[in-house]
Amino acid sequence: MPEAHKPRPLNIHVQGWLLALPAVVLLAAFTHIPAVATVIDSFFSTPHGRRPADFVGLAQYRNMLTDPVFWLALRNNLLYALITVPVSVGLALAMALWVKDRIKGRAALRLAFFTPTVLPMVAAANIWIFFYTPDYGLLNQIMRAVGLGSVNWLGSVETALPAMMAVTVWKESGFFMVFFLAALQQVPPVLYEAARMENASRWMVFRRITWPLVMPTTLFVAVNALINAFRVVDQVIAMTGGGPNNATTLLLFYIYQVAFSFWDTAYAAALSTVLLSVLALISFLQFFLLDRKIHYR
Amino acid sequence: MNKFARLTIAATLAATFIGCSAASATEITFYYPIAVGGPIPKIVDGYVAEFSKAHPDITVKPVYTGTYQDSIVKAMTAAKAGNAPDVVILLSTDMFTLIDNDLIEPIDTIAKSESDQAWIKSFYPAFMENSQAGGHTWGVPFQRSTIVQYWNKDAFKAAGLDPEKAPANWDEMVAFGKKLTKHDGSGAVTQWGLEIPSTGFLYWMFQALTTQNGTVLANQDGTKVAYNDPKAVEAAQFFADLSQKYQVMPKGTIDWGTTPKDFFEGKTAMMWTTTGNLTNVRSNAKFAFGVAALPSKVHGGSPTGGGNIYIFKNSDKAKEEAALEFARFLTTPERAADWGIATGYVATQPAAWKTDAMKKYAAEFPPAAVARDQLKDAVAELSTHDNQRVTKSLNDALQAVLTGTKQAKPALDEAQAEATRLLAPYQH
Amino acid sequence: MSDRLTSSISTAAAWIFGLIWALPLLYAIWAAFHPSAYATHFDLTAPLSLENFTRAWAAAPFARYFLNTTLLVLGIMAAQFVICTLAAFGLARWKLFGGEVLFALILVQLMVTPDVLILENYRTLRTLGLIDTLTGIGLPYVASAFGIFLLRQSFKSIPKELDDAARVEGANTLQTIWRVYLPLARPIYVAYGLVSISYHWNNFLWPLIVTNSTETRPLTVGLQVFASGDQGIDWSVICAAALMTSAPLLVAFLLFQRAFIQSFLRAGIR
Predict the structure, then answer these.
(1) How many domains does chain C have?
(2) What is the CATH number of the domain that holds C209?
(3) Are B37 and B277 in contact (CB under 8 A)?
(4) What is the predicted ipTM?
(5) How do residues A248-283 score in pLDDT, each as one tens digit?
(6) Could you tell me if C66 and C26 lie in one domain?
C-alpha cells in the first residue's frame, strides 16, 4: 500500500491557485478589468469614426451634472428602490406567513405566488402591457366595471413608473417569499407554544417572535431587492422605451441607450461608473448590516 | 466524464461549428425591420427564395431585427463589432448617422453601369430627398410611405356626418372629432374622435402638423433644426389641444402599435397612421372605412416615411456586388408593386404603378393610391446628423407637451437648445 | 374566539390576494387560447383555439430559438459546474496565500454582474471574435461568484477525514473531488443547476446585445423582437408567444415544485 504523502505547503498554494485559475481569469476578464476600464474610459472623449479619444478629465462628469435625463434617471431609480424594496419584502413576508399555515388551498396559493418568478421578464412585461392597455385592457375593464374611469397607465407621466414598479414587485415577491418560508421554518415552535399559553394575539406573536427572528432574512432579501432595483432594464425596453418623456428611464437603461443607440461610449462609461459606485455603496451597506445581526435575545 | 456531459459539450461544439460553416456561394446577410402589421417575414422569405432561384451563386440570409429603432441599433452594433450586415433596410432618416460612422457605401459607386444609373433615377423624387446627400445616393427607397387618415364610415354615419368625406382642414378635424366623441352614462368616453399616436414616431406625426402649418423642421443638410419656429409651436399647441382643450383625443401618450387595434375595436373613429398599415386595416376592420390625404391648414401635406435599402461597406467587393443585385431585385417595378399591394406602402416608382397588378389593385381599392397622390404635398422626413439623439430631444419635448407636463413654447425652446448643442460639431 | 375570526379573514384575504396575483397570467392564458376577437371580450362560451400558437410559431423561428436557449443554458451550467467546483475546492480546502483577498474579489461579481458592464464586455467579446456566438453569451457568466460561494460553503462542511481517506488510497486532487466531494454535494449541485438554468433561460439584455442573427438568438430576445411595438399588435399572438417561451420552465416548475423551491431555498441560505 503506497504511503500517504503529505504535500509540501508550497505545492498546496500552487495547486490551489491552479484550480482557481480558470475562474480567476474569467472574472478578471469580465468583471474586474472591464470595471476598471470603464472608469478610465469615463475620463476620455468618445472616439468618432477616425477621431481617436482624447483625455478630457472630468468633462464627461460635468456633462452629466447638466444632463436633465441623467438626474431624472437617477431620481427614477431611487424612487424605484425606495418603493419596490419595502413593498416586495413586505408582501413576500405576508405571502410566506399565509402559505406557512395549514390553510385551505395552500398549494394553489404557493403556486400563484411563485410562478411569476420563473417567467422571463420580457414575457411578463408583454403580458402586463396588454393588461395595462387603455380602455380594453383587463385592468381598465375592471376599473370601468366598478365605475372608475380608464387610466392610460403606461402613457401618463404620473402612472408610468408606478405601473412598472408593480411588474417588478409582482415578479420578485414570490422569489423572496421562499426565503421567508425557510426562515419561518427555523423559528423554534416552542416559542409559539409559549405565546399560545400566554394567550398572545396574532399581532403580538408577529411583533415579538416572528419579526425579530426573521430579521436576518429580511435584511438579506432587502439588500437583494435593492441591488435588483438598480439593475432593472428588461421591462423598460419592453414596455415603455424610457418614456413618456423619460418618466420611466432608469440608469441601466439610459446606459444602454447612450451606449448602443447614441454610441456616445465615453459618456456611457461615466454613467456606468456612477452605477458601479451605487452598487459598491450598497455592498458596503450589506457588509455593515450583516455584521450586526439583529437577533431576538 | 458522464455521457450527459459529453453529449452537451458535443452539442454545443456542433452548434458553434454549424454557425460558422463556410459557404461556397457569396453569402450576404439582410437585416429588415417590420413597422406595420401583416405576415411580413413570410413575404420576405418568399422574395429571398425567388432571388436564390434566379441567382444560385448568391445566398441571402434574412434576419428580422424588430422595429426600425431596434434595427439601427442591431446594424450598428454588428458593424462596429466587425460583423457588418451586407444589405439592410433602415429608416431613410438614419442616412447621416450611417455616413458619419462610415458604415455605408454610396450606392452610385457600386451601381456604375448605365442600367444601374437609370435604376437610381427611376424612383419618385419625393422619396429620394432623404436618400441623397453630398452628391451621392446613399439609399434606395424600398418601403416608403406618407401618413394618411383612416376613418370609420359607420361611426361617421352614426354621428350624422357624411361617411364619404374626411376632415379637409384643422377646423373640420375638431368639429368632426367633437361629434364623434361619445360618452357613456358615467361620463367615460366610449369612442374617441381621433387618435394620433405619440410613441414610436411622434416626431413624424408632428412633422405632418408642421408641414400643414407651413414650416420646415430641419434643413436639407441635416445640420440645423427649427423646432421652436412660431409655426411649429402653434402646431404643437394644436396637437396638445386635441386632447386637452377639445377633448377629441385620449390624454397622455397614445401607443403607436395599439392605435390600429383601437381603430378596429371602435375605440377611435379616426386615426392617423402610416399608409403601410393599409393592408392590415383592410384585413382586420370589420366595418366600412375610408382613407384620405391629411387635412390642411395653410396647405395639405405629410412627411414621407419608411425605409430605404442601404449597402454596408465591405472589404469583399463581391459581397457589395451581391448586395446590389439583391437591392435591384427587391426594387423592380413588379416587386415594388407586389410589396405595395401586400402591405400598403407606396410602390416607390412610377413604373410600378403602371404594372397590371398595380393598376388592377388601385382600380378595385382606391385607398391604395391616396398616399401616392399625397406625394405632391410631401416633404422630406426629419433627418439630421446624430439623428437618434436630435430626434429624441424633439420626441421628449412633444411628449411633455402632450402629457401636460410642459407648455408648448418652453418645451420646444429646450428641445431646440439641446438639438443645437448636439449639432454643433457638424457645422462646417 | 376572535382569533378564529381573524384566521378566517386572513385566509379569505390570502385567497383574494392570490387571485389578484394570478390575474395577469390567467389573462394571458385566456388571450392565448382564444381567437383574437375574444381577447378583450370575456365571453365564456368562446371557442378554444390553438390558432395563436400556430401563428406565433410560424411568424418567427421559435424552434431555432428554443434550440439556442437550450444549448445555451445547458452549456453554461456544465461549464459553471466545472469551473466553480475547481475554484471552490481550492478555496474551501486550503488556506491559500492571498486566499481571503481572492475570495473577496470573487464576491465582487455578486454585485457587478456582466450586464452592468455591457459596453466593456461587449468590446472584450469583439476582440475575442465571439460576437454572435452562444459561447460569447455564456462566457462572462461561467465563472460565477454565486456558484463558487455556494460550493465553497458546501465543501467546507464535508469532513476532512473523507478527504484524507481518499488520499491514503492514492487519489490525487481531481480524483478526490470526483469521488468524495461531488457525490456529497449533489443536492447543492441540483439546487445551483436549477437556479442557473432559470436565470439564463430568462436572461435578456446581454444576449440582446451579443446576438445578431437567428442562429444564436435565444428565446427572450426572439420574443422581444417578435413582440416589438411597431407592428399592429395582436395581443393574442403575443401572449401565445410569451407563454411558449416560458413554457418549459413553467412546466418543469409545475412538475417539480418541491425541488424548485427547495433549490432556491438552499441556494439562498447562508
Answers:
(1) 2
(2) 1.10.3720.10
(3) yes
(4) 0.83
(5) 999 999 999 999 989 888 999 999 999 999 998 888
(6) no
Closest CA to B202 of B129, B147, B270, B145: B147
Q: C219 and C123, same structural domain?
A: yes
Q: Residue A36's CB: how many other CB atoms inside 10 A?
A: 12
Give the amino acid at C150.
L
Chains touching chain B, criterion 3+ CB pairs below 8 Å: A, C
B406 touches chain C (CB under 8 A): no
| Interfacial B residues in 334-353 facing A (CB < 8 Å) | none
Q: Is B46 on the interface with C (CB under 8 A)?
A: no
Give the Cα separation of A33 and C108 in Å (integer). Answer: 12
Buried/exposed C33-68: b ≥16 CB within 10 Å, e otherwise = bbebebbbeeeeeeeeeebbbebbbebbbbebbbbb
| C40 inside domain | no
- Show which subunits contact C, needing at least 3 CB pairs below 8 angstroms: A, B
Q: What is the pLDDT of residue C112?
A: 87
| Co-location of C97 and C207 in the same domain | yes
Residue C230 lies in a domain: yes
Task: Place B22 in a pLDDT band, splitting at 50, 70 and 90.
Answer: very low
Quick check: is C77 in a domain? Answer: yes
Report yes or no: A250 at the B interface, CB cutoff 8 Å: no
Q: Is A154 helix (H, G, I), strand (E, B) or coil?
A: coil
- CA distances (Å), origin C175, targets B1, C147, C172, C178: 12, 21, 5, 5
Give residue B18's pLDDT.
47
pTM of the predicted structure, to 2 decimals: 0.86
Q: Which residue among C78, C216, C228 sits closest to B70, beta carbon to beta carbon?
A: C228
Mean pLDDT estimate for chain B: 89
Its CATH architecture, for the domain A67-113+173-294, is: Orthogonal Bundle (1.10)
- The answer to whether residues C26 and C112 belong to one domain is no
Residues C130 and C219 in one domain: yes
Query: Is residue B234 a contact partner of residue B214, using CB atoms and an 8 Å limit?
Result: no
Summarised one tens digit per residue, pLDDT across range B77-134 is: 888 877 889 999 999 999 999 998 889 999 989 888 888 889 999 999 999 988 998 8
Distance of alpha carbon B245 from alpha carbon B177, whole angstroms: 12
Cβ of B85 and C212 within 8 Å?
A: yes
Question: Are A245 and B386 within 8 A, CB to CB?
Answer: no
**Does A254 touch chain C if contact means CB atoms closer than 8 Å?**
no
Amino acid identity of residue C220, one-letter, is: T
Same domain assignment for residues C118 and C244: yes
Q: Which residues of C touch A35 (CB under 8 A)?
A: 112, 117, 120
Find, in chain B, the residue whose alpha carbon is nearest to that of C37: B265
Q: How far apart are the first and last CA of chain C?
A: 40
Domain region containing C26: 1-34+45-49
Angle at the Cα of A219 (from A214 to A223), degrees rounded to 5? 150
